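Archive record:
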Amino acid sequence: MLTKTYQTVKVEYEKDGIAWVIFNRPEKRNAMSPTFHAEMWDALVRLNVDRDTKLVILTGAGKAFSAGQDLKEYFRELDGKPFERAMASHHSHWRNEVLYLYNKPTIAMVNGYCVGGGFTQTICCDFAIAANEAIFCLSEVNWGILPGGMVSKMVADTLRPRDAMMYACTGRPFDGKEAARIGMVNFSVPLKSLKKETLKFARELLAKNPNVLRGTKHAVRLTRFMDWQEAGDYLAAKGAEIKQRDLTRGHDAYQEGIRQFIDEKAYKPVYSPYHGAAEGKAPSKVRKRAAAQRVTMKRKTAKKTTAKKSTAKKVVRKKRAVAKSATARKTTARKSAAKKPAAKKTARKSTAKKRTVAKKATARKTTARKPAAKKKPAAKKTARKAPVRKTAAKKATARKTTARKPAAKKTARKTAARKKK
């Protein structure tokens, strides 16, 4: 544990090996002076070899993360002092020479203003988390110089080209949410949750194998600028380095992780590291926990199997019920289809009957409604028919008379013949 005290930097510890490195010039918004650079170099080198330090978080005291270089102390007061200027420049490389390939995980917790040269330590940390309310700004263009130090290169490598160009050339400020959107930080959260979320993320990293974590972050940093062959050689060498570092503590990360996953089924790599990754060994407590987890996993697997079987049975029952209901529907449909003609005939008959009944009822109502005087037209018709009947009778009588006349003639002829005799 680091016990040295500094004038512009403060180091504090959490119980689990997390070291806070706090930029401690709140009255200057944590602007970086030559003294600050020298103390940061010293503190980071000491923490890098400190066995009690497992992870480093950089943040600022007060309402700022870093306002960039202290223009008065770093620039104006060093004019005409070449040695002091050279030492200040050398110590300012604690960011790109010490922090960039640090052996331990590093997180920048951006709690407020991050301006100009403050971009360098933010980008050189492995990870960055910002408050939504934080303010980022590359203001150098507004006072006549390039973005400080290697900021132009770092911003171009970190951000999308269009975003890097716009914010470097305009000097526009942007907040933590925008910083997360353009890739300046990993994510942003409300200021009141910033410390809690940063520690949560830090402890997630602490659960990993430190040698594997170190090799991984170095590989991601450096292979970006290599061709395929160079990257392949480098990564093979890194893998061998991890094994060698683990052997110094009697551990083999690869074999342990594979064994616990395949043989013991003690963890799920998608959701957590293998047991004992951070410690470099699986202690008795961890082994007991792993054994308990294996039992739990077997029980869960058995329950899932039983649940699947019961679910399958339910599905089969449902399918059968559906098939039966479908068959019943078809049968009902056929019967109804067969009954339809008879039903139609019955309906027609009933309709005809109804119409007949309705007509009769209407006729009765009509007859009932007619007054008695209206029966005279029937008498008139009878009177009209009487002469016709008389004429017909006369004609019939005439026909009979005509028919009788020849008979009378014959009788007369016979009488006349007798007389002659």
